[in-house]
């Protein structure tokens, strides 16, 4: 365990915002968790930080940051067709994806390249190119921070939805995720429903394999998303809005090129990035805060933008989109005050 006081969080958030926190507690082993309760860390203001890739700190954080660095990828059960793998919260998501590709376990190859830790993956229900965490997750283990009691929640308990779960609703800030159990397939199968991904792969490739699919995913991702080692961002800043069909019918009349998908409950999901682009924000830059030229959904920090500057930019965008479409864009990113 490492405890640092008044430390900069710049290396701990992919926006690269330079804010500090009162105390940063990095947990390296699960048997260190009791210390957090002994020191009453969760009785003060606290935030559990993963890879910091879905967080915008708008000012110094006046509290404790708990950062999980626990490691471990263990196969706990295997059948002829399936494998169950338990992964520690502090593992890098991509290290786990890499493990699965090397061992020919199918199911998460489309999720390669997401700069997450494993512990945050169920919180956000991460998703990309037709696959979501909910499709491969068996259960989550952790500790209720309010009473230091362990919990195991199965897939259905997690109430997964688009970029959401029970950990962002009823259990928001109430759980420390310690382990995630995945259920993956040993049978060769791919999800290639996403057109841009399909187009990257030959249609008649009898030798299609996990490596080829993962490479194609990375190629598509890199064509649209900034490399956070070079340009700060938190990926998609806004969620794709879902609107009633009646409202959509009027909109499509005015904007016939709107990308749209029917949802299961009769509503229509729009592409937030396209709305931002039509509103004229793609590629715009205000000092070091900007909108990524290759994907309007991504707000970027070109160097020294502060969290407040990035937040102000996002609010300007929300205002313009609302004025034009009467649609309130909702941030996907956790905004920290
Ligand atoms: C370039 C880029 C591309 C991206 N692409 C995608 C994408 O394709 N698909 C996608 O879904 N997302 C994407 N994201 C967003 C982001 O990577 C995901 O939301 C990711 O799950 C966040 O993980 P993190 O470890 O960085 O979590 P953080 O940002 O640190 O935290 C996210 C939330 O999880 C909570 N949390 C973290 N760890 C724990 C824990 N152990 N216990 C309890 N709560 C915890 C935090 O409190 C916070 O509420 C992208 C981001 C970037 C920067």
Descriptive overview:
- The protein is α+β, with helices and mostly antiparallel strands and 337 residues long.
- It has 3 domains: 2-68, Uridine Diphospho-n-acetylenolpyruvylglucosamine Reductase, domain 2 (2-Layer Sandwich); 73-224, Uridine Diphospho-n-acetylenolpyruvylglucosamine Reductase, domain 3, CATH 3.30.465.10; 232-336, Uridine Diphospho-n-acetylenolpyruvylglucosamine Reductase, domain 1, CATH 3.90.78.
- The protein contains 8 helices and 20 strands.
- A hairpin with a 3-residue loop joins β6 (73-78) and β7 (82-88).
- The chain is globular.
- The mean pLDDT is 97.
- The chain binds flavin-adenine dinucleotide.
Features:
alpha+beta, four-stranded mixed sheet, Uridine Diphospho-n-acetylenolpyruvylglucosamine Reductase, domain 3, Uridine Diphospho-n-acetylenolpyruvylglucosamine Reductase, domain 2, 8 helices, 337 residues, binds flavin-adenine dinucleotide, 23% helix, Uridine Diphospho-n-acetylenolpyruvylglucosamine Reductase, domain 1
């Amino acid at each position: 365990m490492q405890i640092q006081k008044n430390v900069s969080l710049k290396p701990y958030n992919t926006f690269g915002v330079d804010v500090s926190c009162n105390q940063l507690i990095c947990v390296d082993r699960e048997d260190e968790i009791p210390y957090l309760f002994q020191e009453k860390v969760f009785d003060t203001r606290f935030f559990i930080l993963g890879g910091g890739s879905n967080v915008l700190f708008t000012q110094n954080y006046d509290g404790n940051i708990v950062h999980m660095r626990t490691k471990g990828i263990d196969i706990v059960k295997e059948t002829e067709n399936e494998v169950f793998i338990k992964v520690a919260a502090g593992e890098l998501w991509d290290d786990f994806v890499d493990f699965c590709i090397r061992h020919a376990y199918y199911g998460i190859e489309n999720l390669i390249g997401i700069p997450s830790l494993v512990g945050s993956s169920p919180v956000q229900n991460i998703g990309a190119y037709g696959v979501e965490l909910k499709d491969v997750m068996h259960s989550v283990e952790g500790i209720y921070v309010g009473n230091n009691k362990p919990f195991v929640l199965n897939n259905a308990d997690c109430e997964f939805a688009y970029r959401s779960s029970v950990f962002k609703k009823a259990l928001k800030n109430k759980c420390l995720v310690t382990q995630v159990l995945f259920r993956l397939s040993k049978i060769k199968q791919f999800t290639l429903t996403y057109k841009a991904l399909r187009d990257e792969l030959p249609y008649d490739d009898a030798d299609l394999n996990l490596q080829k699919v993962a490479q194609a995913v990375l190629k598509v991702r890199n064509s649209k998303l900034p490399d956070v080692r070079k340009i700060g961002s938190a990926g998609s800043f806004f969620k794709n809005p879902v609107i009633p069909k009646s409202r959509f019918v009027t909109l499509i009349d005015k904007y016939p090129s709107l990308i749209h998908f029917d949802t299961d409950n009769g509503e229509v999901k729009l592409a937030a990035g396209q709305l931002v682009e039509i509103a004229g924000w793609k590629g715009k830059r205000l000092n070091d805060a900007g909108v990524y030229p290759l994907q309007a959904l991504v707000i970027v920090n070109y160097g020294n933008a502060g969290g407040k500057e990035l937040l102000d930019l996002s609010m300007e965008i929300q205002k313009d989109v609302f004025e034009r479409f009467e649609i309130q864009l909702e941030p996907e990113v956790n905004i920290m005050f």
